Amino acid sequence: MGNASREWQHALRVDRPALLDVQGFDSGGVYALSLARREKTPLVVSSVGETLGRGPRGVDRQPGLLKPFVQAIRQASALTAISHPVRDDLHLRFGAEGVLVIPDGVDPAIDVSFGWSDIPWRIDGRRVVFAAGAVDARSGFDLLVGAAARSTVAHRLVIGGDGSALAGLKEWSKRVGGAASIEWAGPLSARQIAAGMDHADVVVLPSKVNTDVSEIVSAWKIGTPLVASATAGAVSVIHHGMDGLLAPLGQSASLAECVGRLLIDHRLAEGLVAEGKRRVASLSWETAAERYREVFRVI
Asked: What general EC class does the enzyme of this chain belong to (predicted)?
């Protein structure tokens, strides 16, 4: 601990930074707080969700971090958070005011070239709802099959992927009714997933646990209307009715309703696509860096 403190002091005196920015409060944040006080250097606290941690790394679970974290919030010249839920938690539980939300930059999960031969289904003129990923208990594909069974709008549901739940879901999908046909495309390459997202009429991210934000950005970048289960990851990024539709967790009826709306309401689908494409730029690393520079300039 003593060596680390000396290294911090040495770096501060050699580099002479105009401010200290703590990205995620851990033991480094404790050192930064101490040095900011000693050297009278402005402190910026950028919270990455450590107050929401449910595991041993959460600030609440580490008594040695909680007190200095609260002190750092009170002393900070500026406070930022990576999402609105993080900002709201800082305000409600720690009294933080004026927290600016600056999302991390997001690299799309899919950024590859593809061709017609990569489309993971035979085009026949019917509308296609597409989903892909690991087929397990957390993927939410059972909800998607249930949504297809409830659908009153004719379409093809194409699901790509492999996993422990695949055999059971395939067998179940043979017995469900509804206006949709259900097809299992098997394991897909990145090119095939990209082609599927591009040629589908609707992309669905039905996870029951969490949603990879990069998959959301991929759908926006490709330009296909999106439905996602309202996981923490999806809620932190998607603005319901503006750049995508959110279905309550665990509700196949709501998934069916959202998918049906996008298959029928072309104006809504086009509006979501247009706003999603605009959002891609706002979630780039360049945009995040510029927003941090704006914070630093006024300190």
From this structure: transferase
User: What number of H helices and E strands is found in the chain?
Assistant: 12, 10
Residues 7 and 35 in one domain: yes
What's the number of CA atoms in the CB half-sphere (13 Å) around residue 123? 11
Give the tens place of pLDDT for each residue, 205-236: 999 988 988 899 999 999 999 999 999 889 88
Task: Tell me the CA distances in angstroms from 259 to 61, 72, 150, 254, 262, one per residue in order.
Answer: 41, 45, 11, 9, 5
Give a yes or no: residue 52 inside a domain.
Answer: yes
Least confident segment among 4-8, 12-16, 247-251, 293-297: 4-8
Q: Which two tokens stand for residue 87?
A: 């900002």
Domain tally, the chain: 2
Q: Are 120 and 188 in contact (CB under 8 A)?
A: yes
Give the CATH number, domain containing residue 221.
3.40.50.2000
Rg (alpha carbons) of the chain, rounded to whole number: 23
pTM: 0.75
Look up tokens 């309550």; give the residue.
248
CB-based contact 295:18 (threshold 8 Å): no
